[in-house]
Amino acid sequence: MNITALKEFFTELNHQLAMAPNEVRRLFHGRGRKWTGLEQLTADWLQGQLVVTLYKEVDTEYLEALTQGLVALVDSPLWQEKAGQCVLLQHRYTNGAPSQVIVGELDTHPIVQENGLSYQLTVGTNQNMGLFLDMRLGREWVRDQAKQKNVLNLFAYTCGFSVAAISGGADKVVNVDMARGSLAKGRENHKLNGHNLNQVSFLGYDIFKSWRKITHSGPYDLIIIDPPSFQKGSFALTKDYQRILRRLPELLAEHGQVLACVNSPMVSCDFLIDGMKQEAPQLSFQYRLENPPEFADIDHEASLKALVFS
C-alpha cells in the first residue's frame, strides 16, 4: 500500500460518490488491481454511511493520512449533498474484522435499496454485511428470469437471490443454507419487500446431508449455486462443487436453467464449464453474466464468475 496513492483514492472516491445513485453501491474497488498502490482498499456507500475497508495492515502514518482524508470528505459540500451520516473503517486483515467509527454515529442495521428492492444489512460487527454488492447484476438477472418458476437457491445466505426471484414473479423459492441466522435475516428481507412468505421456504440444512428433502420440493425451473470458496467443516470449493453439479439432473426440470457462481481468483470459468461437462453433461454452458462496472478487475478470470447453463 502506497501512501502517495491515497490522493488518487480520494479523487476517485469523490467522483464516484457524486455519481452514485440513491442505492447501495461500491465506490472504490482496489481489489481489482486497477489502482496501483491501492490494491488492499475498498469503499462502499450504504446510502448515508461510507464503509472503507483495509485488507492489509498499514503503518501509523498511512492510517493517519487515510483518516484525515475521510474527515475532509465529511467536511465537504458533497457529503452534505449526499446526506452523509457516518464513516466506518474496517480492518479486514485481522481476526474479527474490527471496525472503528471515524465520523458520525453508526447505524448497525441500515435498510438499503438495490434495483428497487430493500435489504437490511449488518454493519460493523461482522466480516460481511449481508449483501454481496458484486452480485448486483446476478440478482437482476434472476429477477428477470423468475416469472412463474420454481426456484432453488443453494447457499442462500441472507436470500438476496430469493428476494429478487419473488419480486420477479417466481411461484416458489426454496432457500437452503446451514446458517439459520442468515436465513432468518433472509426472511426479514422478504418481509421488508412485502412478499408472501407462503411462497418461500427456508431450510437450515447441510446441503450434502439433505438431498432427499431438497429434491422433495422439485423439480426446479431455476437453480442458483453460489457457495463460499471455503467454509470450515462444510465446504471446500475444489472438492465439493462437483458434488453439487452431479445432483443437477435429478433436481432440474426439463428446459430448466442453472446459475452457477464462483468468486475465487484461484479458479477460472473453465472450473465450472469442465465440471459441468463431467458431472452433468446434459447441461450446456450458455453465457457468463457481466459483473458490475464498479467491480472492474485487470484479470477477468480472477473476478466473480456467474455462468448460465441449460
From TrEMBL:
InterPro entries: SAM-dep_methyl-trfase, SAM-dependent_MTases_sf. CDD domains: AdoMet_MTases. The keyword rRNA processing applies. Pfam families: Methyltrans_SAM. Keywords: Methyltransferase, rRNA processing, S-adenosyl-L-methionine, Transferase. Transmembrane segments: none annotated. One of its GO terms (molecular function) is methyltransferase activity. Residues 25-309 form the S-adenosylmethionine-dependent methyltransferase domain. GO terms for biological process: methylation; rRNA processing. This is 23S rRNA (Cytosine1962-C5)-methyltransferase. The lineage of its organism: Bacteria, Pseudomonadati, Pseudomonadota, Gammaproteobacteria, Vibrionales.
